[in-house]
Amino acid sequence: MTFKSDIEIAQATNMQHIRDVAKSAEIDEKYLEQYGNHKAKIDYSFLTDNAGKPDGKLILVTAINPTPAGEGKTTTTVGLSDALRKIGKKSFVALREPSLGPVFGVKGGAAGGGYAQVVPMEDINLHFTGDFHALGAANNLLAAMLDNHIHQGNELGIDVRRITWKRAVDMNDRQLRFITNGLGGKANGVPREDGFDIVVASEVMAVLCLSKDIDDLKARLGRMIVAYTRDDRPILASDLNAQGAMAALLKDALKPNLVQTLEGTPALIHGGPFANIAHGCNSVTATKMALKLGDYAVTEAGFGADLGAEKFLNIKCRVANLKPDAVVIVATVRALKHHGGVARADLGTPDTAALDRGLPNLLRHVENITKHFGLPAVVAINRFPTDAVEELQLIEDRCRALGVNVALSEVWGKGGEGGEALAKEVVRLCEGESKLEYAYDLEDTIEEKLDAIVKKVYHGSGVALTPAAKKQAEQLAALGFGNLPICMAKTQYSFSDDPALICAPDGFTVTVRGLKVAAGAGFIVALTGDIMTMPGLPKVPSAEKIDVDSSGKIQGLF
């Protein structure tokens, strides 16, 4: 049997004109800014004009810790929204924009897969509407203004050894992690060490995704810390008078992007902070628009529930006053067997013993969502043809013992039709009560918050701060940042800070090697393990397989 690739399926789709998609979603054309026939931006005034309209139900899609076997979280998110429409519900899906780094690297894009995709997938995975270019430009404008201030006399007394702001590019380029610039004489600036982050790790990205309107955007941009003086005084972007020009570059990027699924379900795709570096959720603006436009708004959080969902709940929900009505936890039999120690080549072979060894990873995420955060949940098993009946039954039995139902999802091969059972369970959950309990109080100390995340969410024995991190925690508290939420920068592959500790380890200690404040975004970033803000390309990058023919048709994207 021959399977079509994702891009072949997407390119064979007869897409609706974006005006018709907007009309079906009851979006007045006055809010629509078209980018060709199949993409548009929705003006942020839509939210102001519709402030009195009731919100729909919010559904968060998360997953187990990712594995090389794949889980299909975005595919499930898209397919669930299509399935809700299939059973007669008005749904809307809100996703993150893909970064070019993973697209050309190893992970791939973020437009879903099979028959549960958002289109035009080539545009979404590449330049789209230019949001990331605008974010990179705003980031680098601030960097240029900072270095220009130093070159022109350094009136603010900036310590060039304590500049925290980096330049950014949306590409995996390890050569740029550490650089020396300003060489070549006095006319070329002040020589200093510098470096690049990938755009999705820039604080400007997090600020855009957490801003409620353009005034909030400007205020947050102005609060960003770019450097310190010799006497430990933080230098803000507003000290350089940079926030206005940055906001001017971002005024269109702040508007969510409207596209469609393969089945014509309206989709908002906006913002894309990495979940193992930043908070890993699409923009507050897009989520709130989806809640106004649909009776059910389906959104996702990056990587496993220990990263994306934890940050969605502890950071985004706090900032935006949101609360999920139901949570979907995505898993596959193959991925759980990987957590059980099975080699990738053998994942298609039925093995209930290995599955049983790997199931604690899923069950821990289920318990976290239902018991610690207090939210109703369903497990969606992204079904593969090699899954044995007894394997599926084992997962169902173990989840039911925790009071959570399991729904098989076949949206990759069947689209919305393959997700109807999941959609019905989600609707049932949304009719019940939902209460969100945060993992920590904002009034807790920085160390207490870190300890709460490690113990309650990761199930470790506690947190250990290096001497440098302890000093940074004291300095941040003294500067008035002690009451901010925590954004953990941690490996996505494990509950711990060691990617080799898969499944459900316990008794481990998470070491925080550094703390830095993202004052504009409004959280403190805790650096663990060897997490980097500028990834590198693999030995054989996906870019080697991508091409375009003489007619302009892209090939090999997926």
Structure description:
The protein is an alpha/beta fold and 558 residues long. 35% of the residues lie in helices and 19% in strands. The chain is built from 19 helices and 25 strands. A hairpin with a 2-residue loop joins strand 5 (112-113) and strand 6 (116-119). Helix 7 packs antiparallel against helix 10 (243-250). 54% of the residues are buried. The model has no long low-confidence stretch (mean pLDDT 95).
Low-pLDDT windows of residues = none
Rg: 23 Å
What gross morphology would you assign? globular
The profile of the biggest β sheet is:
12 strands, mixed
Q: Give me the secondary-structure category.
A: alpha/beta
Summarize this structure as a short list of keywords or feature phrases:
alpha/beta; 4-stranded mixed β-sheet; 19 helices; 25 strands; 558 residues; 12-stranded mixed β-sheet
Topology:
Elements: H1 6-11, H2 18-24, E1 32-34, E2 40-42, H3 45-49, E3 57-63, H4 73-86, E4 91-95, H5 100-104, E5 112-113, E6 116-119, H6 121-125, H7 131-151, E7 158-163, E8 167-169, E9 179-181, E10 192-194, E11 196-198, H8 203-210, H9 214-223, E12 225-229, E13 234-236, H10 243-250, E14 257-261, E15 266-269, H11 284-293, E16 296-300, H12 305-320, E17 326-331, H13 333-339, H14 352-372, E18 377-382, H15 389-400, E19 406-409, H16 411-414, H17 420-430, H18 446-458, E20 462-465, H19 467-478, E21 486-489, E22 509-518, E23 523-528, E24 547-548, E25 554-555
Parallel strand pairs: 3-16, 3-17, 4-15, 4-16, 8-11, 17-18, 18-19, 20-22, 21-23
Antiparallel strand pairs: 1-2, 2-14, 5-6, 6-14, 7-12, 9-10, 12-13, 14-15, 22-23, 24-25
